[in-house]
From TrEMBL, chain A:
Topology versus the membrane: Multi-pass membrane protein
GO BP, one annotated term: amino acid transport
Family recorded in the similarity comment: Belongs to the binding-protein-dependent transport system permease family. LivHM subfamily.
Originating organism: Hadarchaeum yellowstonense
Compartment annotation: Cell membrane
Keyword Transcription regulation recorded: no
Superkingdom of origin organism: Archaea
The protein's name in its UniProt record: Branched-chain amino acid ABC transporter permease
Keyword Transport: yes
Automatic annotation (TrEMBL), chain B:
SMART domains hit by this protein: AAA
Keyword Transport applies: yes
Protein name, per record: ABC transporter ATP-binding protein
UniProt-listed GO biological process terms: L-amino acid transport
Entry's Gene Ontology molecular function annotations: ATP binding; ATP hydrolysis activity; branched-chain amino acid transmembrane transporter activity
InterPro entries xref list: AAA+_ATPase, ABC_transporter-like_ATP-bd, ABC_transporter-like_CS, BCAA_Transport_ATP-bd_LivF, P-loop_NTPase
Family, as annotated: Belongs to the ABC transporter superfamily.
All copies of domain ABC transporter, residue ranges: 2-233
Glycoprotein among keywords: no
């Protein structure tokens, strides 16, 4: 029998990896730290609540809805705010502030929607948990099997998309050198738009599965953003594959670290769980600012072997 | 073929070009020379839609391309080879060539790659290598092959031989001449002014974002004052 804490870690880490992939994609393509990203995941969580409690449908049947809706909101942020302002010469710092402000708008909508669900449908929408709405696969909650499968599928599909398709190659080229990509005929703005849509979609997808395992509320995205930042920095902010590794390590460290510390210091430690991603960020900045994928492992291993 | 009139352009609020008028005739090699910071690169970047144009017009074959995004300028038949970062270092040579045919169909891209490799046989040798691992001369050849993939009518070169060995530089310049002989109009920015002017039909001398001279390259080379003051050419 697998320990519940192991399952907890795997579900959280794989969902965090999905979110980190999208966050890192935006960072790589447009160099923007999108502070509104967490709320896109929360939007996904509310799609699940609506699907399960209002439409009486399986949450899994509405994953695509969550992907598309969050993707559209992310695209709107890029197309109608980020792009026009960056064309007017606003600095990257200004764009960070813009995403921060947009996050407040999203939070406003999410709170209004939560109140709407509470008042009209008499649901517990300000603090909800949908574990009871999950399906069972071989006696195991569906999310335990589906979230790792989803993470692996996303990685495989994204890898094939980036390496085997013309548009994927154009995306890699645009990430590396946007002016040159434009001068070989790539529509750079279209690439950016697709990146923002995909990234938002991934947040929505991961967010839709969150209430199946953890307690959700309108601000849950902001709390998870700390972990997403940490995971992205840990993986090295210039690599999709690094984002996956960072997401899994940061997610497992957060869940298992909190569990281990509460075993030693008591359950009071649990409320300090968000400190773990912050500690990860500090340690990474001090020891390997380029992240895991920025380390020259081959050189390090060779040096170590020589010493031995 | 290319007519620029009253062009004021720069980056954000920083204006670099002031009231620039330039005309480039079909089939010519035009060299743009001038001291560092005189606006040479900004001028060709403006043609490619990579700067902010405040006022003025850029016409290519009588079509206004002033505010077109870069990928649409490319579609009109202009290729651009930037001074640095003229290939995608993280992609293989083959992927770079395929990307150069981005606007073409799959079959057409394959056909053009074969044609281009016949023209640039050296590139064949390192087709599977990532461009980041190539030498400066090899990268420049790949960049030129990429430019040719689109069968352009005009190629804009920004210091193509800067930091190349003399042998590699000679090869690149020879290739540029060959391309011009095939009817492609060439605009060439070069710091080694004397050498570049010797290749060119026409010349543009830029200083402080303005055109100080335009006309025959031979006349500029022979000019007793302009060459000496701005280009360090000590006469014939």
């Amino acid at each position: 029998m697998v320990e519940p804490i192991v399952i907890d870690g795997i579900v959280y880490a794989t969902l965090l990896a999905c979110m980190t992939i999208g966050f890192t994609l935006i960072l790589m393509s447009t160099k923007i730290w999108n502070f509104a990203y967490g709320s896109l995941a929360t939007a996904g969580a509310y799609i699940s609540l609506t699907a399960a409690e209002v439409w009486k449908l399986s949450i899994y049947s509405q994953l695509l809805t969550a992907f598309v809706l969050s993707g559209i909101v992310s695209f709107v942020l890029y197309r109608f705010l980020v792009r026009p302002l960056s064309q007017r010469g606003i600095s990257l710092d200004g764009l960070f502030v813009l995403t921060f402000a947009f996050n407040f708008v999203l939070l406003g909508f999410l709170n209004i929607y939560a109140d709407y669900l509470t008042n009209v449908f008499k649901l517990r929408a300000r603090l909800f948990f949908l574990r009871g709405a999950d399906i069972q696969i071989f006696g195991t909650p569906g999310v335990v099997i589906i979230s790792p499968l989803l993470a692996v599928s996303i990685i495989v599909v994204l890898h094939l998309f980036l390496t085997r398709t013309k548009f994927g190659t154009a995306m890699r080229a645009t990430i590396e050198n946007p002016p040159l990509a434009g001068s070989v005929g790539v529509n750079v703005n279209l690439v950016y738009s697709v990146s923002w849509f995909l990234a938002g979609g991934l947040a929505g997808l991961a967010g839709a599965l969150l209430p199946l395992w953890i307690l959700c509320y309108p601000n849950i995205g902001d709390v998870i953003m700390l972990s997403v930042f940490a995971a992205s920095i840990l993986g090295g902010i210039h690599s999709i594959y690094g984002a996956v590794i960072g997401g899994i390590i940061a997610g497992l460290a957060e869940v298992w670290g909190t569990s281990a510390l509460s075993g030693v210091f008591g359950s009071g430690v649990i409320q300090y769980r968000p400190l773990i991603p912050l500690i990860i960020v500090v340690v990474i900045f001090l020891t390997a600012p380029e992240g895991i994928t920025g380390i020259e492992w081959r050189g390090k291993l060779t040096k170590r072997m020589r010493k031995v | 073929m290319l007519k620029i009139s009253g062009l004021n352009a720069g980056y954000g609020k920083f204006q670099v070009l002031f009231d620039v008028d330039v005309e480039v005739k079909k089939g010519k090699i035009v060299t743009i020379v001038g001291p560092n910071g005189s606006g040479k690169s900004t001028l060709i970047k403006s043609v490619m839609g990579l700067t902010k144009v405040y006022s003025g017009k850029i016409l290519f074959k009588d079509e206004d391309i002033t505010h077109l995004p870069t990928h649409l300028v490319t579609k009109r038949g202009i290729s651009y080879l930037p001074q640095t970062g003229n290939v995608f270092g993280n992609l293989t040579v083959e992927e770079n060539l395929m990307l150069a045919g981005y606007t073409l169909s799959k079959e057409e891209t394959k056909k053009r790659i074969e044609e281009t490799l016949e023209e640039f046989p050296l590139v064949k040798k390192y087709l599977r290598k990532k461009c980041g691992f190539l030498s400066g001369g090899e990268r420049q050849m790949v960049a030129m092959a990429m430019a040719m993939m689109r069968k352009p009518e005009m190629i804009l070169f920004d210091e193509p031989v800067a930091s190349l060995s003399p042998k590699a530089a000679a090869e690149v310049l020879k290739k540029i001449m060959e391309l011009n002989e095939k009817g492609i109009t060439v605009i060439l920015i070069e710091q080694a002014a004397k050498k570049a002017l010797q290749l060119a039909d026409d010349a543009i001398l830029m200083t402080s974002g303005k055109v100080a001279y335009k006309g025959s390259a031979k006349n500029l080379l022979a000019h007793p004052e302009l060459g000496k003051v701005y280009l360090g050419i000590k006469g014939k």
